[in-house]
Task: inverse folding
């Protein structure tokens, strides 16, 4: 059985959890789970010791009792596949871990498709589930209907088209937000713990380039990465070439609202700044280091003053990249506290096309920091108000430019 490793945000395809949703579901809303989870690693890892203390086999007698009671008494139609899928979903949910989940074959296809950067129809937001079980926006994608409507990272979705999300799974929330292009969905959200807002969003086809660039005043190179996918490194290399041709000497790396994706991509991009052998991140189970990832040595930006912009929508592989550069003294982090996704998932495929995504470890920055549920606190905190964002007044980018111009 081939085993893929995901690192929350996902080493997806010795490389990509995926546009950041892995248990976080990218609601290209219309599509299902997007990426977000960390990292998918191509190298199989099935040699871990059992830390659960569970017996090798289960006694299913009590399960069969419930099955027979349901079979004999339920007033409705059920199929055997529904029952089995329910059992499998339940086993994964028993871990009480928002990043451990079972995908049926159709759910796995949607999940993997999103990791590949396929265009999807929806609102363009990634969903997660907090420790209280609330459905939360991890990040709206740049240029998406969700972003245009004003949806923000950390918004708690209270209801979808009038239906409460209390007790609702991420997959169910995504299903309810899905719909054809041009149709509308109404979301009620709770912002900041007290502000209740309503958004009616028109679904659309979501196609967002994973990396864009331009040259700012003062010959500062600006590189924005919206997610880490299989094509991102090539796009970034093209941007770096254009920077070199223009004589750029300073760079802004914008990772705001980047939910993560393929960690191989994050590792390769970090290597543009870092000398070969520099630590990018480590994975640990308990106190044991089970994997370590280093820069590959393609470092045309080494020594170039750099600011990394992050916010509450920066997660997983985006956080890995930000800390890899920061801890190796290659960049200053500015903006607002990041999302805080510091766990590693492994995706295990089965012969029927279904998959289990399971948390197997935590990842740590080069300085040994794990940011799970904490996020990255920037070196310089710069707020971006709703009013400034709507007016196109990017106070965070302005602060980054001012900082670099002083260097």
Result:
């Amino acid at each position: 059985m081939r085993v893929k490793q995901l690192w929350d945000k996902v080493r997806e395809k010795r490389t990509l959890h995926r546009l950041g949703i892995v248990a976080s579901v990218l609601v290209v809303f219309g599509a299902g789970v997007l990426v977000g989870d960390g990292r998918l690693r191509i190298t199989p890892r099935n040699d871990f010791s059992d830390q659960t203390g569970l017996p090798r086999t289960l006694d299913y007698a009590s399960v069969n009792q419930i099955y027979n009671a349901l079979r004999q008494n339920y007033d409705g139609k059920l199929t055997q596949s529904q029952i089995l899928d329910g059992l499998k979903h339940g086993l994964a949910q028993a871990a009480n871990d928002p990043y451990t989940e079972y995908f049926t074959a159709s759910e796995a296809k949607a999940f993997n498709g999103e990791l590949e950067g396929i265009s999807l129809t929806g609102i363009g937001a990634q969903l997660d589930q907090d420790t209280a079980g609330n459905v939360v926006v991890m990040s709206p994608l740049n240029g998406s209907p969700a972003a245009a409507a004003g949806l923000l990272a950390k918004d708690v979705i209270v209801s979808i088209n009038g239906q409460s999300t209390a007790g609702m799974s991420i997959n169910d929330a995504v299903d309810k937000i899905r719909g054809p292009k041009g149709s509308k969905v109404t979301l009620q959200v709770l912002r900041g713990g007290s502000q209740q807002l309503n958004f009616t969003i028109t679904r659309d086809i979501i196609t967002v380039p994973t990396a864009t660039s331009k040259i700012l005043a003062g010959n500062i190179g600006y590189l924005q990465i919206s997610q880490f996918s299989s094509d991102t490194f090539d796009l970034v290399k093209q941007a770096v070439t254009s920077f070199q041709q223009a004589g750029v000497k300073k760079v802004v790396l914008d990772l705001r609202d980047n939910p993560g994706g393929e960690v191989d991509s994050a590792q390769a991009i970090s290597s543009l700044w870092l000398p070969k052998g520099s630590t990018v991140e480590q994975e640990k189970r308990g106190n044991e280091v089970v994997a370590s990832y280093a820069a590959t040595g393609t470092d045309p930006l080494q020594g170039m003053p750099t600011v990394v912009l992050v916010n509450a929508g920066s997660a997983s592989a985006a956080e890995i990249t930000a800390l890899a550069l920061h801890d190796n003294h290659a960049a200053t982090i500015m903006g607002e506290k990041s999302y805080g996704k510091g766990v590693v998932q492994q995706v295990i495929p089965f012969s029927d096309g279904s998959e289990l995504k399971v948390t197997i470890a935590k990842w740590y920055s080069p300085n040994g920091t794990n940011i799970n549920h904490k996020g990255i606190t920037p070196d310089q905190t710069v707020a971006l108000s709703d009013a400034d964002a709507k007016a196109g007044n990017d106070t965070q980018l302005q602060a980054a430019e001012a900082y670099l111009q002083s260097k």
